[in-house]
Design goal:
12 helices; 27% helix; Rossmann fold; 2 domains; alpha/beta; 6-stranded mixed sheet
Length: 430
């Protein structure tokens, strides 16, 4: 497969506006007839769906902590220009040394970085900030800057003059506008499928980037495209073997956190993916394996509890074949889930698990996992990110677990008969 060309959008820190700028670019370029596609650095299920809405192409995750360089290369390869949205700051990664930062993706794919800077509260100080990032690591080339949250043409002029001596071009200016803010909840942005106004918002963001600040220079599409560079030849990487031939996968607003590369790996070797919606009370399809991905079951707990056909068929399948749940899917396999208002909802009752969002507790970080049983055998790189508090967990554990620094953690997950699950999201084989 042709490797393609690309560029990475990164920032000095979280909250700089990378996602809005990335979506604006993807929509702007796709409207102009440029073949473009998005990717997201790190473990993220929400931003990629916005990328797909912006340009109509599948968005993959590129995780330099959990994936090998060959895996990153194989996932990044493809037709058209690749725009990778970074996570957190350019050099921010897992403890203790920042491994897995977007800078590592840039090195693995040999891609230049365009730095998105929130300039809303600075003027000339933008120059030492950009100079510091550009000179910090010789293996990471900062090829351009996009200035976000710019208040006026006068403000833009001060920023441009300060940056001119650095020789790092300003390729775009995003104006300060309240209507470009994106609503969020505790795990990140509100999901793309929940926004009825998404298409209009994407066009609004693209127009704002194209026009820039009144009185200043508009966005130069050709100058931006000139920054993209050819990636090294695509490498082949080991795929994740499917757990069965026919796999029923829950897919709706409550179960939206399935990695595209995982499902693509399964399909690539002939597995059949059978989607169904628990929220629509679909019965589980006839399959050899049932997969309940993560998502937001706590927001839909009443509907899930009342989905009689789904629950009945799930229990029937569990008597005969494997059922596996991750994070939100794991909670649904439990006995009960307490929502943020303190209301308890009956779940499937297939695992001795009770969870609660009434008193939230953050669990966050990469995980090294060794299966102790269950259907996902072997060693894995994964991550955990949720606010559920475990009130009860009875049964055999599913994984032995270590954090990113190699510190042994408590065992994760549960297994009972054919049913297994945990709060860990599996990313790739370790």
């Amino acid at each position: 497969m042709r490797s393609g060309t690309g560029v990475i959008l990164a920032a000095p820190s979280s909250g700089a506006g990378k996602t809005t700028v990335t979506l604006a670019l993807l929509r702007l370029l796709s409207r102009a007839g440029v073949a473009v596609r998005g990717a997201k650095s790190g473990p993220d299920y929400i931003d990629p769906r916005f990328h797909e809405a912006a340009c109509g192409q599948v968005c993959v995750n590129l995780d330099a902590w959990a994936m090998s360089p060959a895996r990153l290369s194989s996932l990044a390869a493809g037709e058209g220009r690749l725009i990778v949205e970074g996570a957190m700051g350019l050099f921010d990664g897992a403890p203790p040394d920042g491994r897995g930062a977007v800078a590592d993706v840039a090195k693995a794919l040999r891609l230049p970085v365009v730095l998105v800077v929130d300039a809303g509260r600075m003027a000339q100080s933008v120059a030492p900030l950009v100079a510091g990032f550009a000179g910090f690591d010789a293996g990471v080339r900062v090829a351009g800057v996009i200035l976000n949250n710019v208040g006026s043409a006068r403000h833009a002029g001060m920023l441009r003059r300060a940056l001119a001596p650095l020789g790092v071009p300003v390729v775009g200016v995003m104006p300060r506008r309240a209507d470009l803010a994106m609503p969020s909840r505790h795990l990140g942005l509100v999901q793309a499928g929940e926004r009825a106004d998404l298409d209009a918002f994407l066009d609004l963001a693209a127009d704002a980037l194209a026009e820039g600040v009144p009185g200043d220079q508009p966005f130069d599409t050709e100058a931006f495209l000139a920054l993209t560079e050819e990636m090294p030849p695509a490498q082949s990487a080991r795929r994740i073997d499917p757990p069965a031939q026919r796999i029923a996968v829950a897919q709706d607003q409550a179960f939206a956190f399935a990695y595209p590369h995982l499902l693509a790996d399964w399909r690539a070797v002939g597995a059949e993916i059978l989607p169904f919606s628990p929220l629509e009370d679909d019965p589980v399809p006839q399959a050899d394996f049932v997969y309940l991905p993560g998502g937001y079951p706590e927001l839909h707990a009443g509907r899930i509890s009342a989905a009689a056909k789904f629950i009945y068929s799930l229990k029937a399948h569990a008597r005969m074949g494997p059922v596996y749940g991750e994070c939100g899917g794991y909670m649904v396999l439990g006995e009960g889930l307490v929502d943020a208002e303190g209301n308890r909802h009956e779940m499937a009752g297939l695992l001795g698990l009770e969870t609660s969002f009434f008193m939230r507790q953050l669990h966050l970080g990469y995980r090294q996992l060794q299966a102790l049983g269950g259907p996902m055998q072997g060693t894995w790189a994964g991550h955990e990110f949720h606010y559920a508090r475990t009130m009860k967990a009875e049964g055999d554990p599913l994984f032995a677990a270590w954090d990113a620094e190699g510190t042994r953690l408590d065992d994760m997950g549960l297994r009972r008969g054919h049913v297994a699950g945990s709060f860990a999201h599996l990313i790739d084989r370790a």
